[in-house]
Write a structure and sequence with these properties.
Radius of gyration: 32 Å
Largest sheet: 2 strands, antiparallel
Protein name: Pentatricopeptide repeat-containing protein, mitochondrial
Number of strands: 2
Keywords: Repeat
Number of helices: 32
Distance between the termini: 73 Å
CATH superfamily of one domain: Tetratricopeptide repeat domain
Pfam family, one: PPR_2
CATH class of one domain: Mainly Alpha
Strand order of the largest sheet: 1-2
InterPro entries: PPR/CCM1_RNA-binding, PPR_rpt, TPR-like_helical_dom_sf
Length: 587
């Protein structure tokens, strides 16, 4: 008899050791009996009924099929996402005393983790001990991945430290990659970098895959110099970078508009016979499109096609979106049709991009034609499709059609999200349907769904622009009672409401209250107040306020400048009273 320590995970995130007495089972109990016929049957499992039927035949067979056969069936079911059924079958195996091994137990732990029940995964460790099955690196790697998936970052880090510190399990490259990926994808870039340095000091050395995780995290955190330094370091250590390494760096430099570095890296990888892939192509085209260089992006795509790199639907979507953002819908549609002509099937994102472009161009006929084309091509419109079209309908004043379209959306089983509700509220307000907007607002308040500050900002703005300042102010005053804090948009909106009604003293008081409450006004806030003074020709306030704006480094926007020019044309003597603004000084 041997006494074995077991790591237990409690609900409060604390790891403790408990002891079990375990008797090693006889070797004969784990003898492997392989039946190829069951493996063939497992490959034919296409649904849950097939799996359950095969399992029933397996447990009736004498002698029993091998542990390998059972593990293969369970893994197939996990891949099919029949998680509850997997648990049920494993319980039946334990009840029938069917032999199990570490592979089956690791599958079950993974199954629990995919259900976001890592706590149940930890409970499986007792079965390892009861059956004399040793833990392995896969066991704890799976549990670590499960904790990260549930955003239990602290618990995952504590478990990893305990495994290393108490020599329970020596981490390999796979376990390190899980921890580093888990940290980096949740914004813990420095901890990821620190873990790389720890790994370098141990027996398990980082490879290109590990370096890529850290370089990508640094790039996404805009720490490009540190990322490039690490890139040079890995080359000096004889660890050759691969296409993933270059893609991370190229993506980082593209997003910062550092095109010279992009060009250098691109030619360097080609010279090293590391050929750009479709991911490289999409990164570069996306970067160019975001800078408005859509023709250059399309030229890069043509060049890459000539080199044998075929773009995918994501690459096409990026360039189509670039043309749509510039209002060049003919070019966008040409590229869309070209994609189909090359047997690349558009996805729902492709349709949403084009529909959004047509809606912004007020081309509702083309919009609805595309909408009906979606289902004909075997796709389903999603919540974004409906939201885009709803906004387009409200923008051209087709409120009746918009409301019918919303009912149609609901009939498909789609539920409006925050974005959809904001579109509905803005649409009702901008078309004067204040009662309809407020009815929806009160309904959302009762449901307590999607009631964040952005929703209240839309309502306050809509009421102000429809001449209901008192109601808008009442909504504003209610915020603190329901635990929401006004942001700079909320304050600027209510200040604008006061200015529209000529209540300039109230506007100034709200501006001071805003700062007292720890919310700093921005350039937009000051322009709103200044426009109020200009509109009502408050000369003394204008000069004082202009000086204050200048001291804060704020500048005029186009609407303010227009009012100021008009006032100066009527009162040229005011020119000497206006302070000299610094050019390009904006916050």
């Amino acid at each position: 008899m041997t006494r074995i320590s077991l790591l237990r995970y409690s609900s409060n995130g604390i790891f403790r050791f408990i002891s079990f007495s375990a008797i090693s089972p006889s070797a004969s109990a784990f003898a492997i009996r392989y039946y190829s016929s069951f493996h063939c049957n497992i490959e034919n499992v296409k649904c849950l009924d097939d799996a359950l039927s095969l399992f029933r035949r397996m447990i009736r067979t004498q002698p029993l099929p091998s542990v390998v056969s059972f593990s293969k069936l369970l893994k197939t079911m996990v891949n099919m996402k029949h998680y509850s059924a997997v648990i049920s079958l494993v319980r039946k195996m334990l009840k029938l005393n069917i032999p199990i091994n570490n592979i089956i137990l690791n599958i079950v732990i993974n199954n629990y983790c995919l259900m976001h029940r890592s706590d149940c995964g930890f409970s499986m460790l007792a079965i390892y001990l009861k059956n004399g099955i040793p833990f392995d690196v896969v066991t704890f790697s799976t549990l670590l991945r499960g904790l990260f998936a549930e955003n239990k970052i602290k618990d995952a880090v504590n478990l990893f430290k305990k495994l290393v510190r108490e020599d329970i399990c020596e981490p390999n490259e796979f376990m390190y990659s899980i921890v580093m990926n888990g940290l980096s994808k949740r914004g813990h870039t420095q901890k990821t970098f620190d873990l790389l340095r720890v790994m370098e000091q141990g027996s398990t050395k980082p490879d290109a895959y590990i370096y890529n995780i850290v370089i990508d995290a640094l790039c996404k955190d805009r720490m490009l110099d540190a990322a490039f330094s690490l890139f040079e370091e890995m080359k000096q250590k004889g660890i050759p970078p691969n296409v993933v390494t270059y893609n991370s760096l190229i993506d980082g430099f593209c997003k910062l508009g550092r095109w010279e570095e992009v060009r250098t890296l691109f030619f360097e990888m080609v010279n090293l016979n590391i050929y750009p892939d479709v991911c490289t192509l999409t990164i570069v085209t996306d970067g160019l499109c975001k800078e408005g260089k859509v023709e250059d992006a399309e030229e890069v795509m043509r060049h890459m096609i000539g080199k044998g790199v075929e773009p995918n639907v994501v690459t096409y979507n990026v360039i189509i979106d670039g043309y749509c953002l510039r209002g060049q819908m003919d070019r966008a549609r040409r590229l869309f049709d070209s994609m189909i002509g090359k047997s690349i099937k558009p996805d729902i994102v492709s349709y949403n991009i084009l529909i959004n472009g047509y809606c912004k161009d007020n081309k509702l006929d083309e919009t609805m034609h595309l909408f009906h084309e979606i289902s004909r091509n075997g796709l389903r419109p999603d919540i974004f499709t409906y939201s885009i079209i709803l906004k387009g309908l409200f923008d051209v004043g087709r409120t009746d059609f918009a409301q019918k379209f919303f009912v149609k959306m609901q009939s498909t089983g789609l539920k409006p999200n925050l974005c959809t509700n904001l579109i509905l509220l803005r649409g009702y307000f901008q078309n004067g349907l204040v009662e309809k907007a407020m009815s929806l607002f009160h309904e959302l308040e009762i449901q307590r769904e999607n009631t964040d500050i952005e929703l209240y900002n839309v309502v306050i703005n809509g009421l102000c622009k429809n001449g209901s300042l008192d109601k808008a102010h009442a909504v504003f005053e209610k915020l603190s009672l329901i635990g929401l804090f006004p942001n700079v948009i909320t304050y600027t909106t209510i200040i604008n409401g006061f200015c529209l009604e000529g209540l300039l003293d109230e506007a100034k008081n709200m501006l001071r209250k805003m700062e007292e409450n720890g919310c700093s006004p921005n350039n937009g806030t000051y322009n709103v107040v200044l426009r109020g003074f200009l509109k009502f020709s408050k000369i003394s306030e204008i000069t004082t306020f202009l000086k204050e704006m200048n001291e804060r480094g704020f500048s005029f926007d186009a609407a303010t400048a227009k009012l100021l020019i008009h006032l100066l044309a009527e009162n040229p003597s005011l020119l000497n009273m206006i302070p000299q603004f610094h050019s390009g000084n904006k916050k």
